[in-house]
Amino acid sequence: MKSVAGSPHGNEDPDREEGELSVLHLAAVGPSDGLARAGEERLADDETARGAVRSERRKEILRRRREELGLSQEDIAARLGISVRAYGNWERGLVKEWTDRKLLALAESLEMSERQCFWLFRVMVDRDPPPTWRAAEENRLPEDPAQRDYLCDYAALMEAVPYPSFLVDHRWDVALTNSAFDRLFQSVRPHPTALPDDNFLRFVLFHPDAAAVLEDHEPAWCVPLLARFANALAVAPDDEGLRSIRQEVARDPFMEAAYRYGVPHWLSTHGAAAAELDGAVRTVRHPDPGWGLVRCRMVAESSPMLEGMGLSRITLVLSAPNGLPTGPVRGVATSPYQPGARLRAVPSPTR
């Protein structure tokens, strides 16, 4: 693949879509009165501001994903088969044209999921990936056929559960989600590295929409997960994925202060057991207005097969919203989030 240089025309706007008239063209053909000129100047200012924001987003999505993987520009250049200088130009946005070939090569070299590849194309060229694109999700599946078959059946099991449920590894990379999980986070906007179905820890810590879904975001979600992250990093200090998250925490003054000072104080006050997820009670804001704020209990579990793949499952067991029955009522359909099953050893409260 050849190195890509910047535009030979120093005055061209690299973010202007093909077929758009530049402001200079509009000035040449438009009315000559002062009002029109003022409008053109405002248009130029708006376009310049939008172009600057879009340019920064393009640079950010590549840099942050590379740093998330713990890779250098030299590493990515080697994967792409181009010079370090050429990739440096790519990351700085000095590209004359983003072709499908370049973007798909980037998605592969940056180990992007299907959803990340979708947003890469949207940010870079404002359209979807080509229909021939096939995400490298197969590469995330274990090579053992028995484990692959198990995961396929486990996906069917998770889909039958009405509560949000997902599989994660020790880095909090998400391997599998069910439809209830996707619905809970359906309003979350795109992000280059912190989508909830890519890495749940990054989502909690760095996504600007996390607090809109996870109630009491800082004390109930950020601090306990930072405590668990600190333990994971202590166990595997050389893990590239965990080190990448640590570097991102260090770049965020708020998160760095929480990690260095807030977590130790919180643990000394509440005890190490408070960082455990299994059994923890939290609150989420459901996208369904009829639910609103919903209490949920986190259930963390695994199995020998999942442990062999380095995975564990987390389920958010949602309680019924305020004003709705908390258990089965005769003659009334049960909410899909509150099934009618009960413990046989516990007497029914209606008796």
Overview of the structural elements:
The chain is an alpha+beta fold and 351 residues long. The chain has helices at 23-29, 34-68, 73-80, 84-91, 100-109, 114-125, 145-159, 179-184, 200-206, 210-213, 217-235, 240-251, 253-270, 304-308, and strands spanning 165-168, 174-177, 281-285, 293-301, 312-318. It has a five-stranded antiparallel sheet with strand order 2-1-5-4-3. Strand 1 and strand 2 form a beta hairpin. The radius of gyration is 25 Å and the shape is globular. It starts with 22 loop residues before the first helix and ends in a 33-residue tail after the last strand.
Features:
five-stranded antiparallel β-sheet; 5 strands; alpha+beta; 351 residues; disordered C terminus; single chain
Distance between the termini: 75 Å
Helical amount: 40-55%
Give the structural class. alpha+beta
- Tally of strands: 5
Strand content: 5-15%
Return Rg in Å. Answer: 25 Å
Net shape = globular
| Major beta sheet summary | 5 strands, antiparallel
